[in-house]
Amino acid sequence: MKKVRIFIAFAIVLLSGACTNLDETLYDRINADSYFQNEDEIKAGLTAVHYKLVQVHDWFLLWQLQEVSTDHAELPTRSNGGWYDGGIFIEETTRTWNANHNTVNSLYKNIYSAIAMSNSFIETIEVAQKKIDGLESVKAETRIIRAWCYTLLCDLFGNVPIVTVAKLDQQNLPTNSSRLEVFNFIERELLESVDLVPSVNAVNRADYYPRMTKEIVWAMLAKLYLNAEVYSGKARWQDCINASDKVINSGAFRLTPSIWDSFVPENENSPEIIFAIVQNNKDIVINQAGGNWADQLGLHPLLQFKYDLPFSPWGGPRVGNTHYESYDNDDFRKTLILSGKQYASNGDFLFEITPLKSITNAGQDEGYISIKYQPDPQQIGMSARNDQVLIRYADILLSKAEALFRLNNKGEATTLVNQVRARNFNPVKPLSNLTLDDILMERSHEFLWEHMYRTDLIRFGKFLSSTYDFKPNPTTELFRTIYPIPQSELQSNPNLKQNPGY
């Protein structure tokens, strides 16, 4: 039975300390003198910060902005009117969102709520350090979590305020920092913290997971450097390679025999997972954050009887037609997308999945269905036990491969791409004349619905130019490579400026 491996005691009390709007004072309600008297209480405070990170990764919001805006996913309105939700899903599919878009607003607020909690806890640790020794690692871990939040903001919104205090001066509210300044802040925070947290090899992984380790930080840096040209205007390919090598040379991770091994219920022991969000079907702290929604939201209702599930799925998200058709038929990863006739576990015919024909009036059986997160027969409510995967070893290998290729080391790049590709073909089908398009396609197939494809397409210069079903092509709206600052935030804080184009 999975357990949450961070202390739960006191966490609910400590959650009240974070606010989401930048116009509000982020009061430090965590009182070090009252609560933090020993190591267990410090760990309880850290639990509250991790809880906020779970909320940031509410499976649906980030997924919408990163996947529905690409050919990876569609969220069609059904012919019975279901899945309309005021048209927000259509806006995401057709890239017509604006500064009042609900998903954009909700995710922005969730991220800043986690940052607020991190800032409050960091200040509290600084007080507690006067009477409790050995808190440097806890403070560093909190800075790493905050840096990850800023990485998401940098990627999605670009020019955002950098807030590092728990209480804002209402007469001097923050202004936007440039994307370059945000990038530099993230890099500095991670580099200053990496030596203060343990290596995964120095702890009992089963007990320490999912806390921050050196390898998680180097993986975060590898991904930051992979996108450095987009974020900062300067390519950092060698730095991406160096950070990737820190993870690879640790020897702590390896590819699993099957890609599906990292997405099963209770997947916390996968040797491929570097960074993940704990999901659980019992613990209240996790359940309040929504759990892993993938199958609850995405499966056709009748698939309850194929996988013997204790719930009826909602039948929403679908894999894009263009993406499904891009696979080699011998690629195992294609089998993680359901198509055609479906049968119950007892052999009875259920229904037939057909390609999606409309995003405004789709039949219930239209649209290919992802089962990448293996359906969990012990799911309770919306909470499955599959931990949400954020960074896998395969990502590090393919990130290094791309950086090598862009530095004209095609031989080693090809070896790494084929290393990831090999487990998906029997017999293997190695690539021999590797191109950048091959690397992008391999990433597309390997990381379907893992919250990164929009980022990949932007880095490859193809987010706005590729031809996908139901997406405008080509588009002249170049500003849509970043999302707008929510209008509600602009109204709350007059010092903020909107991103260009919105």
Structural summary, described in words:
The protein is mostly helical and 502 residues long. 41% of the residues lie in helices and 5% in strands. It contains 20 helices and 8 strands. The protein has helices at residues 11-14, 32-35, 39-56, 59-68, 88-94, 102-128, 136-156, 179-193, 205-208, 214-226, 228-232, 237-248, 284-288, 294-298, 321-324, 393-406, 410-422, 436-446, 453-459, 487-492, and strands spanning 73-74, 273-277, 318-319, 337-338, 340-343, 349-353, 369-370, 388-392. It has a two-stranded antiparallel sheet. Strands 2-8 form a two-stranded antiparallel sheet. Strands 4-7 form a two-stranded antiparallel sheet. Strand 5 (340-343) and strand 6 form a beta hairpin. Helix 3 packs parallel to helix 7 (136-156), helix 7 (136-156) packs antiparallel against helix 8 and helix 16 runs antiparallel to helix 17 (410-422). The longest helix is centred in the first third of the chain and has 27 residues, at 102-128. The radius of gyration is 22 Å and the shape is globular. The termini are far apart. The relative contact order is 0.14.
